[in-house]
Amino acid sequence: MPSRYIFAALALLCVAMMFISYTTGFAGETLGRISGYIFVPFEQGINAVGGWAREKADSLEDLADAQARSEELQAQVDELTLENSRLTQNQYRLEELEELYELDETYSEYNKVAANIIASDAGNWFNTFVIDKGASDGIAEDMNVIAGSGLVGIVTKVGDNWAQVRSIIDDMSNVSAQVLSTSDLCFVKGDLQLMETGLIQLSQLRDPEGEASIGDTIVTSYVSDKYHAGILIGYINELTLDSNNLTRSGTLTPAVDFEHLHSVLVITDLKQTIEEE
Questions:
Q1: pLDDT of 161-183, one tens digit each?
Q2: What whole-number distance in Å separates Cα of residue 150 and Cα of residue 106?
Q3: DSSP 228
Q4: CA-CA distances (angstroms) from residue 121 to 124, 126, 134, 165, 229?
Q5: Could you give phi then psi for residue 268, rounded to 5 degrees?
Q6: What is the pTM assigned to this prediction?
Q7: Any idea what DSSP says for residue 212?
Q8: What CA–CA distance (Å, rounded) separates 152 from 235?
Q9: Domain boundaries 112-276, corresponding CATH code
Q10: pLDDT-flagged residues of the chain (< 50)
Q11: Where are the domains of the chain?
Q12: Nearest to 148, CA basis, from 270, 237, 267, 262
């Protein structure tokens, strides 16, 4: 059938339905019910899908906001952690400088140069290390080095702007010492294995009267050829009688924390020079 006839028939049908609806109201009510059965569920479905999509979009937006907030808070935590670390380091540095100042006052009769440690041997203990002061700063071999509360070691090598220090815990170190209260002589020898327990070896203590006891102070002796007399080394931890029944040996607790050294004082007065003068 030609399309113009179909179009004409549909047009007449529409006009007829409009006329019936206008005159009786029946078609409009019927079409409304039919539309309700057909389109209302469809609209409800569309609304449900739209609501689900809105909820998901809101959830994604909330998640993005939460993630952004979390990143912002994490950045603040990182900044506060860094600031706290800096404050802790500054506090430790201040305490270390206060110790050096008190040590400088304790041994005020000697001239000294402050130096920072810039390198050390592998490991946790500062048995040998390098400082940032050298010959241009008046540093020379055999100068005594102190830190914390007492003796650290002695300068062994010197460059223009650096110097190497061997501490008293090194296996090559052997310091002539004495018990402060009795003046009895002994030797303090380095022992890295023993230092793992926080102690230093004490040997050949000439104590015929047996007066030395646990807790007594050990200092450098007056007969040492390189170390100034009277510099604090540590405190007796234990003593046992040697096989010769004449001397005693044991361990002592050092006055210096050889695991956390950062700065030292170098006594620029040589023992030999002072004795000659």
A1: 999 999 999 999 999 999 999 99
A2: 10
A3: P
A4: 9, 7, 19, 11, 28
A5: -85, -5
A6: 0.68
A7: -
A8: 14
A9: 2.40.10.340
A10: none
A11: 1-106, 112-276
A12: 262
